[in-house]
Design a protein that fits this description.
CATH class of the largest domain in chain B: Alpha Beta
Helix content of chain B: 25-40%
Order of helices and strands of chain A: HHHHHHEHEEHHHHEHHH
CATH topology of the largest domain in chain B: Rossmann fold
Largest sheet of chain B: 6 strands, mixed
Number of helices of chain A: 14
Distance between the termini of chain A: 14 Å
Mean pLDDT of chain B: 84
Structural class of chain B: alpha/beta
Number of helices of chain B: 17
Strand order of the largest sheet of chain A: 1-4
CATH superfamily of the largest domain in chain B: P-loop containing nucleotide triphosphate hydrolases
Shape of chain B: globular
Helix content of chain A: over 70%
Oligomer: heterodimer
Number of domains of chain B: 3
Strand content of chain B: 15-25%
CATH topology of chain A: ABC transporter involved in vitamin B12 uptake, BtuC
Strand order of the largest sheet of chain B: 6-9-10-3-11-12
Low-confidence stretches of chain B: 239-245, 494-501
Shape of chain A: globular
Mean pLDDT of chain A: 91
Radius of gyration of chain B: 25 Å
Radius of gyration of chain A: 20 Å
Distance between the termini of chain B: 46 Å
CATH architecture of chain A: Orthogonal Bundle
Strand content of chain A: under 5%
Low-confidence stretches of chain A: none
Number of domains of chain A: 1
Number of strands of chain B: 22
């Protein structure tokens, strides 16, 4: 059996067990309302985590995404307040900006041979600062088009399958195709396996790096739009630390933090696991929300140990003759 | 001729790496390329594969002049390379590795089914039927990975295949499998350049061979028409008159250390070694024969997995370099730049390093004492540096080596291992280091000297141990030490010739 798919199975099993525990305690958890809300509440996280998955698969990291989401929300809100542009045009502008921002970070990472950590850390401060420059207040979005975006489909059982939830699922699907079924995706895995070797095998390292961070920037922008729909406003202090939550969901989703191995689908499960824990806390009512963080911390630890174990297993496999 | 190289010259700052080298490779031929470290093999290969640009000379492939500018470029032209370290991606599947860059796509998406079919086709004829191309490459043994790398190189290039020490990490059975693949490829008309320092393999596989030494072409011969002794003469170069022996073997020294059955699986077969106080033991052998491996085992860098080391006080703990240092060992490794000096630290800091390590971090050596120590050795060893605070990386090779020596001398070790102490340093410094070895042993220190320069070994050693194929095969003492005997011992194929020892 393929050892690298094990973390994905582990993620799915943990999610199912967690859901089972929740269900036993609160049978209402297994309703379309809860499932619908799970998708809606975590739509922005799921979208940005898809971008993060690709970055981490390549062996990189993108710390700027949380700030970029906040910037996106503020940008959209301010543009809609101060101009007569149609939201779709504003979205297109925004996605152009965030994609270009990501591409620029990618170019710096490759061109200066700087660690992604530092470059995207700078990007994190820049984007947050840019959001403050636009406004320091929470700007409500009041536009007829946003009522359209709030559309949902009422599922049997009364649950709402919202547009933004669907956008998230479509994004995950697109991410799966891009990461696992395109040449670009193979190059991403190749970079994660070893930059030097990837170059020897003919990967255009610079171009691929730029594309990877541009992709992450695009996803962060899209996530920002979804977040603005979700909250109906733009606020420069929003989504602080979301980049770290995204990294956590990627790792819980079975992607190895050093790159080169993982599945976009696992990230979706990671996001849903995280959402599930929050939902459980809401249902329970007596637990404080910091329990989410403790459980996430424990899950992360578990997955790091699992990865280490698989790594050792793989080495043992290799040293024995095949 | 498939590939013709003429008058190829390449210089790096300060060294002439290739000096008018020539090479001919015919289609359907395995051509071995031989030479010790620094002979120019890798530089030649790198010029062929576009890693380095040549200074002058011609390379022709199929009669067309070529100047590859990158490995990718060389590949397109038809020259593929497989390195000792497999240069494929262990985290991708075998199929992805084989088809990388040319994955079959449909509507922009990679078609897994066709990719696997392509990969299976590429692997056909390599005897890897049991390999599942959908599994990660990393889950297979190095030998399988190596053959997959060859399959990829052949499929991509298809004219010239360069194998750069492909067998270094394979066992005997795997090597045989690999050779079968290489012979099949020869039948298919590829020109194959085979680099190896295992002479057995060269004789069993190659049709012709070329020897390089110090960046020059020495000889090209048909393999069956030469023999080991000749070959080693060519590789090591002994036009030199029998070097004068330093002094008659001194028997006076008391037994200092003794190693019984010390060895490490896959590195060096178990050996016995007795070290007397104040003697220089030379270790002779070809590259990869087990010289450095012996030193690494003695110093605990790759600790022995069998045998034991004792002195008159009892058993020695040589499980890590740290404990070896505590037992009074010192080791100046072969690769000075990466293993010896800390280039960015000053001369003073480099000299104080080992001494500080022994004292422990809680007990720092006062600046003044470090300074005194540094000044002392700079004077004693005549280290040419403008000041003790200069970064070691800025010194010349010979002076760097002296700094490494000074570091160990500051520890006053009883047993010092010197691996190629004179490599890459100028003649003057060379002589000084040899003189220093003499002085140190006069003071009672014992030294294990590893060198590929026989004249140096002969001049400095009281006795010489010859290693071959990871065995200590023979020992020459005193009057027995001369170049011919060493070369014969290295070349000997059977133990009958050990009679001379």
């Amino acid at each position: 059996m393929n050892a690298r798919i094990l973390p994905l199975y582990a993620t799915i099993v943990i999610f199912l067990i967690a859901y089972l525990i929740c269900y036993i305690q609160f049978p209402a958890m297994l309703s379309t309302r809860v499932v619908g809300n799970l998708l809606t509440d975590n739509a922005y996280l799921g979208i940005v985590a898809v971008g993060m998955t690709v970055v981490i698969l390549s062996g990189g990291i993108d710390l700027s995404v949380g700030s970029v989401i906040a910037f996106s929300g503020v940008f959209v809100a301010v543009m809609l307040r101060d101009t007569d542009l149609h939201p779709l045009i504003v979205f297109a502008l925004l996605l152009g900006i965030t994609t270009g921002f990501g591409a620029a970070m990618g170019a710096l990472i490759h061109g200066l041979a700087m660690p992604a950590f530092i470059v995207t850390l700078a990007g994190m401060f820049l984007a947050r600062g840019a959001a403050y420059m636009l406004t320091i207040d929470s700007v409500p979005i009041d536009h007829a088009f946003y009522d359209v975006l709030d559309a949902y489909y009422r599922m049997p059982g009364g649950g709402r399958l919202t547009l933004i939830g669907v956008v998230m699922l479509v994004t995950v699907f697109a991410g799966m195709i891009i990461a696992h079924r395109t040449r670009f995706g193979t190059s991403v895995f190749a970079l994660g396996g070893g930059e030097h070797t990837a170059r020897l095998m003919g990967v255009s390292v610079g171009l691929t790096t730029v594309k990877i961070y541009a992709f992450s920037g695009f996803m962060a922008g899209l996530s920002g739009i979804v977040f603005s729909v979700y909250t109906g406003s733009g606020y420069p202090l929003a989504t602080v630390g979301t980049e770290l939550t995204a990294i956590a969901t990627v790792v819980i989703g079975g992607t190895i933090l050093t790159g080169g191995s993982g599945y976009v689908f696992g990230t979706l499960i990671g996001v849903l696991t995280m959402g599930l824990i929050q939902t459980y806390i809401v249902f329970d009512g007596s637990l404080s929300s910091w329990w989410t963080k403790i459980v996430i911390g424990l899950l992360l630890l578990l997955f790091i140990l699992l990865q280490k174990g698989l790594l050792t297993l793989g080495q043992r496999q290799r040293s024995s003759p095949t | 001729m498939l590939l013709t190289v003429r008058d190829l010259t390449k210089t790096f700052p300060g060294t002439l790496a290739l000096d008018n080298v020539r090479l001919d490779l015919a289609a359907g031929e395995v051509h071995a390329l031989l030479g010790e470290n620094g002979a120019g093999k890798s530089t030649l290969i790198k010029c062929l594969t576009g890693v380095h640009a040549r200074d002058s000379g011609h390379i022709e492939l199929d009669g067309q002049p070529i100047s590859p500018t990158s490995t990718h470029d060389a590949q397109e032209l038809g020259i593929g390379t497989v390195y000792q370290e497999v240069n494929l991606l262990p985290n991708l599947t075998v199929a992805e590795n084989l088809t990388f860059g040319r994955q079959p796509t449909r509507l922009g998406l990679v078609s897994g089914r066709r990719m696997r079919a392509d990969a299976e086709e590429m692997l056909a004829g390599y005897g890897l039927d049991q390999v599942n191309v959908s599994r990660e490459l990393g889950s297979y043994s190095v030998a399988v990975q190596q053959i997959v790398a060859i399959a990829r190189a052949v499929a991509l290039s298809g004219k010239v295949l360069i194998l750069d020490e492909p067998t270094a990490s394979l066992d005997a059975r795997e090597t045989e499998t690999l050779f079968k693949v290489v012979r099949d490829l020869r039948e298919r008309g590829l020109g194959i350049i085979f680099i190896s320092h295992f002479l057995d393999q060269v004789f069993s596989l190659s049709d012709r061979l070329t020897v390089l030494r110090n960046g020059r072409h020495i000889v090209t011969e048909k393999t069956p028409e030469t023999n080991r002794v000749e070959l080693i003469h060519h590789m090591l170069g002994h036009e030199l008159v029998a070097a004068e022996h330093r002094h008659a073997a001194r028997k006076g020294g008391a037994n200092l250390l003794s190693f019984k059955g010390v060895g490490r699986r896959g590195k060096i077969e178990p050996f016995d070694l007795d070290v007397r106080a104040g003697e220089v033991i030379g270790l002779a052998g070809l590259l990869g024969s087990g010289r450095t491996e012996t030193a690494d085992v003695l110093f605990g860098r790759t600790p022995a997995d069998q045998g034991e080391a004792t002195d008159d006080a009892g058993k020695l703990n040589l499980s890590t370099p740290r404990t070896a240092i505590a037992e009074g060992f010192g080791y100046a490794p072969e690769d000075r730049k990466t293993d010896g000096i800390v280039a960015d630290l000053s001369v003073r800091e480099n000299i104080a390093l080992a001494f500080q390590a022994r004292r422990g971090w809680a007990n720092p050596i006062p600046q003044a004492e470090q300074k005194r120590l540094a000044e002392d050795y700079i004077r004693k060893l005549d280290i040419r540096t403008s000041s003790a605070e200069k970064a070691v990386g800025d010194l010349s090779g010979g002076n760097q080596q002296k700094v490494v020596l000074a570091r160990w001398l500051a520890m006053n070790p009883r047993f010092l291992i010197l691996d190629e102490p004179t490599r890459g340093i100028d003649v003057g410094a060379h002589a000084e280091i040899l003189k220093l070895i003499g002085e140190l042993t006069d003071q009672g220190m014992s030294i294990l000297l590893i060198s590929s320069e026989f004249d140096e070994l002969i001049a400095a050693s009281d006795r010489i141990i010859v290693v071959r194929d990871r065995h200590h095969v023979s020992q020459l003492v005193g009057e027995e030490i001369d170049t011919d005997r060493i070369i014969n011992a290295i070349a000997a194929r059977d133990d009958a010739e050990r009679a001379m020892s």
